[in-house]
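Treating backbone geometry as a discrete language has practical consequences that deserve illustration. Part of our work consisted of pairing the sequence of a single chain with a tokenised description of its backbone. What the numbers capture is local backbone geometry rather than side-chain detail. For completeness, the protein is quoted in full, as a sequence line and a line of structure tokens:
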Amino acid sequence: MAADLKALQAERDDLLARLKRLSADYVNYQKRVQRDMEEARQFANAELIRDLLGVLDDMERALEAAKANHSEEDPLLAGMQLVYKKALEILGGYGLRPIQAAGQAFDPIRHEAMMQRPSAEHAAPTVLDELQKGYELNGRVLRPARVVISAPVAAKEETTEIQSPNDNESE
């Protein structure tokens, strides 16, 4: 009878341990589902916002052209600036933020290097110019900034002509 009692206690302990593991797995599953749902909610509009970035780019180019050709008092220019600012505010409410690029250390996750320009002022690759604005949505890169980065200045080397052994044979 003592052996049966010990066997039942061992079985009970095993079942209790399995129940605790199952309960912990279920709690972790619930947390993971909550996290996934929150992430899905945060990035549900990512494709739409990514498509709208082209519209923002076009508005920026139009504003730059208008500033170059018209005075700041031009009502059409002022209206375009207000529409552009309002679009940025609305998209910002959904978590869209521009990526700071110019003067920053090159980050291959946030910046896409399109060109290099020699620069003696920067030891590490640094963003010199921004060709296209990049954006983050809720901390995740939606579109990297397209940039020009610094490159080390090539040292001038003395060039000396070295003759190969084959050059003497032809004479």
